[in-house]
Amino acid sequence: MYQPLADRIRPLTLDDVAGQSHLIGEKGILRRIIESGQIPNMIFYGPSGVGKTTLAGIISAQTNRKLYRLNATTASLSDIKAIVEELDTFLAPQGVLLYLDEIQYFNKKQQQSLLEFMENGKITLIASTTENPYFYVYNALLSRSTIFEFKPVSRQEAVQAVRRAFSICAKERRQKISLEEGAADVIAQACGGDVRKAVNAVELLCSAAQEDGQGGLLATLADAQAVAQASSVRYDREGDSHYDLLSAFHKSLRGSDPDASLYYLCRLLLAGDLPSVCRRLLACASEDVGLAYPQAAVVVKSCVDSALQLGLPEAKLPLAQAALVIATAPKSDSVASAVSAAWAEAEKAPLDPPAHLKDAHYAGAQKLGRGLTYQYPHSFPNNWTPQQYLPDELKRSVYYHPGGSKLEQQALAYWIKVKGGQNHK
Question: 142 Cβ partners below 8 Å, 6+ apart?
Fold first, then answer.
């Protein structure tokens, strides 16, 4: 029966695991926990192919506990009950280690069914998920578990895993396999931090390797480029990476870093996520640039319209222009702060506007006192006259506070001169 290379060469010791040095390095906390033999209930959180399943197997071997593996996409309560039935038998004298992959697919009832056995120590749970556990795992289970975050494997660490895979392939074939310069780097780069993808690419490359004329095989750079999937775009529009990349993109724009802004823009566009990029640029133009450079909203809207007409890949040009306009523009959050404060007030009990501001364009309005004392600003010097606009209960409220940008300070100075220090409400 065929067994993928990634399974055949799965590391058996902590030292052979690629990456996760922050957890299982020489002084890593998870390494120390494993070596102590006292294994708590744990949740492994991180992307695919970074060693979560491998580490569960190593923990089982080092603690001499029987390992059961379930995948929440196909498992049911009956599968858990079947495991429980083996507890306290000669099949599992030390208790069992249950590795539950993709726990986010278990519903609340299924997750709760694990609690009783987790608390009495008969089952030690190691759950894994590619999604944020704080969103997908219920609190009762979270409170009984320790979360460890796994990170994408770095390119340097992936190169080591690729070379190890080639070495094992050569031993299995009993034939020397030479690598053309750069082949290992191409695979490591293309795997996007997913070691499983890198090893799968190695297996394909070994199968396609040509004889080198000296009794061995040669894995060429061209073949490596052909088999290495363009998987560096780790992205799921419904998952964490969607929000993480958008967050990094927006914060880079806000932080006035044009280079980071362009990088995250390209990451999002490589995944084809044109709508999210356009929406974020439009929001950022008003939220973070705002009145410091009001024209930014006009430029960004024009660029977004052009991008939507062009489609990808050409859309990257106007979108890059919009991103650079925002990243290099002066910043002010006075618009966002003002509307946030006003929104919070508006969400409370609705308040009537003053009578002089109410509609007076109908018969009988005067009898109701509508608009009797309203003063038309354009009938006064500088098109302004003091009068109350907010409801009586809010007449002293201030939502907008001018930012320190040049344009806002100029507007502030103008109105101070016109109003003579009077409250403009």
Answer: 43, 133, 134
The residue assigned the tokens 């489609």 is 311
- Give SS3 for 146: strand
Task: Give tens-digit pLDDT for 150-171.
Answer: 988 888 888 888 888 888 888 8
* Helices within 64-107 (DSSP H only): 77-84
Paired with 219 in beta bridges are 179
Q: Chain-centre distance of CA 379, in angstroms?
A: 55
- Helical residues (DSSP H) of 174-257, grouped into ranges: 183-190, 195-208, 221-227, 240-254
8 A C-beta contact, residue 34 and residue 62:
yes
Strands, sheet with 210-211, edge to edge from the N-terminal-most edge strand? 177-179, 217-219, 210-211
pLDDT value of position 292: 93
Closest alpha carbon to 148 in 11, 35, 28, 12: 28
Q: Compute the distance between CA of residue 11 and CA of residue 58 in angstroms, rounded to an integer.
A: 8
Task: Give the strand pairing for 217-219 and 210-211.
Answer: antiparallel
Q: Model-level pTM?
A: 0.64
Q: What is the pLDDT of residues 78-132, one digit of tens each?
A: 887 788 777 665 555 566 888 999 998 888 888 888 887 777 767 889 999 988 8
CA distance 325 to 293: 10
Distance in angstroms (rounded) separating the CA atoms of residues 390 and 407: 26
